[in-house]
């Protein structure tokens, strides 16, 4: 599967809506169709590569940006878990300039896919410069080129090894290093990555060692295997140091165009028997790095951070600027109107923030405001031109470059610039120690990191002291916050799911702990605006700055125009206010810990969500404490349809589901789409309550339109007076707290 993905990145694209990648198939049934991956709508342009259970397409979004779309089928649970791990690792690691950029992913279960297998879609950037090994087969690299390629690989590995827990790539090799269109190096293929480590000892049986050796062989390439993978009786630890060994093999290959262990001989690898030229070759300065990485004992190999520091020091001595792309490459030429140098400046600024070993500074130097404005203006135009230019294409090794260059109009660049380029950082200081900094939703991935960096610089300009940032978005942060960032993604506003009380209070406790450490500390909340306002209001109540939810919202409103919050958000604020303002004894008298069962739900009158506006085909999902417990979802034909005037109300059994804490009953309308040949769920409304706060003698919870989370676009689909009743059963036994 790794070979398949790698082959996909050896193809190049052009950004014309009516053209495809040269040499690729356009007769596949999916070519020309539209697909949505994580909210990003794309049109499939051509088939790049195919295998037994995977296809790789080139795809284009509405702005003309090109992507690689990998479609994978999982026949069993093991295969599905492997794909999920690859997506999870790439998503966690994306944002580093030397790692291929993850964009989005989507998943369909075996029942939803229509062919009995789980289906996964993964969207990444489409590297257009080709692989490092293909350039090396044509001619030798200069020492400067070797230095830049090796440092980029070390930087990517360092980014992986400094995760918590550390991520081991396990398949580091020169074939997995790609050039982007500017000449910067990217590491790809994370299908073998893992966080597992092993420590064999004398208690291990022969069977255990054999099984582990076979498992490791499945995820590694023979020529790059470290000694501890081949000789488990040495009892060396198995983990991240195997990537350091592989980096040594790569450096040897970059210098001498051959592998130090070309024949993959086990004894040679176990004893580290390789030969470095004794005569002057022009690469002798790299010999100490090769020798320190290719050590038999993994405990004696340098850490990735130390290796980056040594490589950075060598680059400084050689006069090599590691923030510049690899020079002297025969990369495909862009359209005449595109500025390669200006485009390279974009990646140069990103890479500069990661070369901390050389500058000993955790932040990139800031440009003067006028210069920064000019640089951003040039970047936005050239980045669009680069994405629009048709690049050459190669297929396999030794093939001739096919160059087909076409000009792109500036209309798209102007559209993107006017849409996103004029938005300044949106930062509001609610108090001197509480900041809201929403990031605009819908910004393309290519501009997201710029928007975040502008936000960070704006905060640093307006305040002194250290800050911790809390990200409530599904999109991860990309900038470096010196380990003072927290990823706490909240459910999207339109999902019908509300952040649980436990989640909100957990974030508040973490914020309060950071604020107590130093009087000048402050916290920043970022993510979608509605979630930011909710979290800020919760923090104001939790810390006692205000006493009432309305006062908290009004305080935030003084600093910015706040969005309309759904009823479930107001309910959470009311419950939190009760908890923080009531002493323990009175609170015990107000709540209970009885077992609560959901019996049925009554909806009147019947909502009109079908295409003929005569009724609906409802699906109910029940969430308790943030976890999905139960659903009425089944095959589309088995779902009951309720239509007016025959069915004036909807009455559905909820199966006596036991619930606790935050409870949400989410009701969808099931709709069959012929184009995708599957069922879709359209949110109708969401009803929520807290099981510990309801009256134990209540048998039905009645809610009106104002108590439900309903999309404003769907208001006309509910008749008057619209009511929802949830029948509940509270057991007599109070289990206490």
What would you note in describing this structure?
With 737 residues, this protein is an alpha+beta fold. It has 5 domains: 125 residues, 2-Layer Sandwich (Phosphorylase Kinase, domain 1); 187 residues, Transferase(Phosphotransferase), domain 1 (Orthogonal Bundle), CATH 1.10.510; 61 residues, no CATH class; 154 residues, Protein tyrosine phosphatase superfamily (Protein-Tyrosine Phosphatase, Chain A, Alpha-Beta Complex); 144 residues, Sandwich (Immunoglobulin-like), CATH 2.60.40. The strands form 6 sheets. The chain has a 6-stranded antiparallel β-sheet. It has a 5-stranded mixed β-sheet with strand order 10-11-14-12-13. Strands 20-15-24-23 form a 4-stranded antiparallel β-sheet, with no helix packed on it. Helix 5 runs antiparallel to helix 11, helix 8 packs antiparallel against helix 10 and helix 14 crosses helix 15. It is globular, with a radius of gyration of 29 Å. The two termini are 51 Å apart. The N terminus is likely disordered.
């Amino acid at each position: 599967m790794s070979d398949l993905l790698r082959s996909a990145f050896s193809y190049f694209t052009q950004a014309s809506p009516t053209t495809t990648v040269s040499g690729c198939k356009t007769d596949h049934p999916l070519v020309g169709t539209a697909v949505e991956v994580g909210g990003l709508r794309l049109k499939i342009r051509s088939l790049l590569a195919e295998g037994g259970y995977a296809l790789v397409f080139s795809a284009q979004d509405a702005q003309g940006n090109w992507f690689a779309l990998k479609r994978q089928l999982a026949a069993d649970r093991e295969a599905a878990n492997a794909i999920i791990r690859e997506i999870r690792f790439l998503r966690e690691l994306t944002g580093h300039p030397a790692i291929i950029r993850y964009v989005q992913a989507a998943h369909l279960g075996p029942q939803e896919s229509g062919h009995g297998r789980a289906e996964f879609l993964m969207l990444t950037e489409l590297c257009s410069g080709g692989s490092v090994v293909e350039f090396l087969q044509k001619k030798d690299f200069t020492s400067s080129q070797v230095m830049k390629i090796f440092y980029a690989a070390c930087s990517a590995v360092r980014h992986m090894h400094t995760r918590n827990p550390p991520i081991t790539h396990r398949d580091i090799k020169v074939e997995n290093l790609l050039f982007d269109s500017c000449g910067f190096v990217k590491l790809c293929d994370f299908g073998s990555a893992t966080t597992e480590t092993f420590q064999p000892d004398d208690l291990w049986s022969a069977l255990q060692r054999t099984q582990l050796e076979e498992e490791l062989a499945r995820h590694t390439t023979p020529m790059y295997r470290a000694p501890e993978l081949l000789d488990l009786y040495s009892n060396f630890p198995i983990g991240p140091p195997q990537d350091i060994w592989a980096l040594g093999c790569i450096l040897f290959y970059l210098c001498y165009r051959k592998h130090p262990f070309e024949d993959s001989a086990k004894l040679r690898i176990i004893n580290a028997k390789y030969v470095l030229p004794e005569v002057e070759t022009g690469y002798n300065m790299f010999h100490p790095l090769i020798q320190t990485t290719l050590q038999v004992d993994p405990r004696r190999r340098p850490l990735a951070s130390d290796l980056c520091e040594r490589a950075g020091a060598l680059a400084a001595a050689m006069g090599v600027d590691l923030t510049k792309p690899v020079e002297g490459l025969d990369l495909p030429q862009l359209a005449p109107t595109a500025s390669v140098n200006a485009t390279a400046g974009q990646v140069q600024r990103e890479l500069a923030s990661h070369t901390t070993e050389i500058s000993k500074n955790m932040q990139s130097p800031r440009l003067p405001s006028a210069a920064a404005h000019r640089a951003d203006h040039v970047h936005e135009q050239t980045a669009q031109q680069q994405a629009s230019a048709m690049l050459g294409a190669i297929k396999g090794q030794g093939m001739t470059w096919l160059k087909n260059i076409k000009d792109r109009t500036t209309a798209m660049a102007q559209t993107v610039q006017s849409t996103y380029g004029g938005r300044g950082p949106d930062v509001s200081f609610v108090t001197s120690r509480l900041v809201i900094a929403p990031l605009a939703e819908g910004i393309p991935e290519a501009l997201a990191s710029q928007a975040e960096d502008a936000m960070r610089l704006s905060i640093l300009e307006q305040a002194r002291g250290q800050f911790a940032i809390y990200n409530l978005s599904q999109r991860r942060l990309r900038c470096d916050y010196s380990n003072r960032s927290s990823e706490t993604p909240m459910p999207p506003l339109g999902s019908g799911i509300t952040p649980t009380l436990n989640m909100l209070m957990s974030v508040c406790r973490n914020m309060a702990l950071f604020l107590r450490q130093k009087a000048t500390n402050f916290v920043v909340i970022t993510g979608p605006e509605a979630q930011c306002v909710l979290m800020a209001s919760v923090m104001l109540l939790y810390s006692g700055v205000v006493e009432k939810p309305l006062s908290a919202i009004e305080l935030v409103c003084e600093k910015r125009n706040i969005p309309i919050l759904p009823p479930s958000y107001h309910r959470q604020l009311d419950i939190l206010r009760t908890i923080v303002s009531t002493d323990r004894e009175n609170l015990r008298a107000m709540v209970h810990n009885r077992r609560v069962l959901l019996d049925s739900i009554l909806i009147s009158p019947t909502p009109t969500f079908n295409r003929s506006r005569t009724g609906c085909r409802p699906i109910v999902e029940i969430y308790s404490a943030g976890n999905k417990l139960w659903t009425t979802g089944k095959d589309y034909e088995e779902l009951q349809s309720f239509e007016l005037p025959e069915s004036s109300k909807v009455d559905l059994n909820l199966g006596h589901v036991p619930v606790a804490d935050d409870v949400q009953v989410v009701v969808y309308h099931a709709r069959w789409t012929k184009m995708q040949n599957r069922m879709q769920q359209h949110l109708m409304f969401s009803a929520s309550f807290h099981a510990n706060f309801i009256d134990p003698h209540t048998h039905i919870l009645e809610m009106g339109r104002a108590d439900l989370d309903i999309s404003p676009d769907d208001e006309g689909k509910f008749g008057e007076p619209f009511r929802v009743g949830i029948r509940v059963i509270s057991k007599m036994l109070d289990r206490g707290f």
